[in-house]
């Protein structure tokens, strides 16, 4: 007997084929068939406490398994609750399928309760938006997966009318073949090779696109052969181990780090922009190099429409074959005879020391010293993230994940939950400012319900530290940045986990050691003085 498929089943099966094994959200009556179809296809639906956090939990899983995120939301307020995480996925290049329920087309002509145009809302913050149709369900499903996962990755929205989800549909096996990797050729390649051969002061800037192409091995071979020191964006940290002698660490948001890195980039006679997507960089990285005086090669999956920088040669090609083609015929040699990169690396180590007795830098240093090398970290937005991204060395891609394009507060806790769900054998730690933690504290209940045990570190100074610092820098009166101190450790215990308040490195060390032995999550409230970031970021 031939099984009768619903349109929702066709969609769910295509998502399972794409590698999806988890979906997150909050159900409503309009998505019950969709949730049922996901479950029958082998995709577990997990209940979160807010759609925004549901998407970030899904992103945490994505960074572990590589499959697209599935965010499920019911119509109206449910869909709108997820707007931030969808916009974040769009700017942070995260493949995501946003599935929203909606009333049928005929119904919405005479019914207004909770009815709004979801597609118009999501269009500006997605790569594409569709309304599911039973006759074309297989086509729409394949298009959605293909668009979400092609460079640059991003979210795709599908509005699912109630009756369409239940309507009979067929899967005709329509699948778009992936595009073949390409490499440069001709005069442009010859010019690039001549620049490489002539360079004595090359530098590479590596970004998120390289991470998504899994180009780490090719980049390693290339920079080692040609002795090219490299800087990464925060997202690309760990694409090569950060203890590599050519690695100068992450960059993008720290003026203190940029004070040392940007002069080196300006001294280079050749700049190689390798999968560098400047969407996560602060304005200080706008037009850092000068194409009239420096040779610049840009390798990216999309044409430069951002105008954050320009290049003498633009290759819209895959990174690995491009580096191979560029390297052919050019032999290894020494670079930077003055030793400037090594000096800059030493300057950065001095600028971000690991020996503070306490304060935000002491918290980070102690966590890095105590937690196992294989620990996976997540970071919320705020002053602590800037400091953490300079001090937290990564030895693997995605060893530290964060919102570094949209810079969304409240992302670290749910991303840590998702990461631990997908990789329960790995230690996972999240770093949050106290304000960001308060935004999402309810998701501690989700951690308890899922039985996952990340460590949640909270920098507790009862202030929006980064904004307060900016106010003082502009000599403005303090306003809207201070709030009451709260017992974050008690919140952890209230939601079924452990909770500890610490105020010294010794207390933090003991709390971390206990947390590593526990089968429940642990909230560690690290109480620090206000102003602890002054001169440090």
Automatic annotation (TrEMBL):
Chain ranges of the Thiamine pyrophosphate enzyme N-terminal TPP-binding domain: 6-118
Q: Repressor: is it a keyword of this entry?
A: no
Kindly give the Pfam families that the UniProt entry links to this protein: TPP_enzyme_C, TPP_enzyme_M, TPP_enzyme_N
Family matches, as SUPFAM superfamilies: DHS-like NAD/FAD-binding domain (SSF52467), Thiamin diphosphate-binding fold (THDP-binding) (SSF52518)
Looking up PROSITE patterns in the UniProt record yields: TPP_ENZYMES
Residues covered by the Thiamine pyrophosphate enzyme TPP-binding domain: 380-525
Q: Which residues form the Thiamine pyrophosphate enzyme central domain?
A: 190-326
Spell out the InterPro entries in the cross-references: DHS-like_NAD/FAD-binding_dom, THDP-binding, Thiamin_PyroP_enz_cen_dom, Thiamin_PyroP_enz_TPP-bd_dom, TPP-bd_CS, TPP_enz, TPP_enzyme_TPP-bd
The highest taxon in the source lineage is Bacteria
Q: Which Gene3D superfamilies match?
A: 3.40.50.970, TPP-binding domain
The alphabetized UniProt keywords are: Thiamine pyrophosphate, Transferase
| Keyword presence, Transferase | yes
**What family name appears in the similarity comment?**
Belongs to the TPP enzyme family.
Could you tell me which PANTHER family the record lists for this protein? ACETOLACTATE SYNTHASE, THIAMINE PYROPHOSPHATE ENZYMES
Query: What is the name of the protein in this document?
Result: Thiamine pyrophosphate-binding protein
Q: Which organism is it from?
A: Leisingera caerulea (Phaeobacter caeruleus)
Q: What taxonomic lineage is listed for the species of origin?
A: Bacteria, Pseudomonadati, Pseudomonadota, Alphaproteobacteria, Rhodobacterales
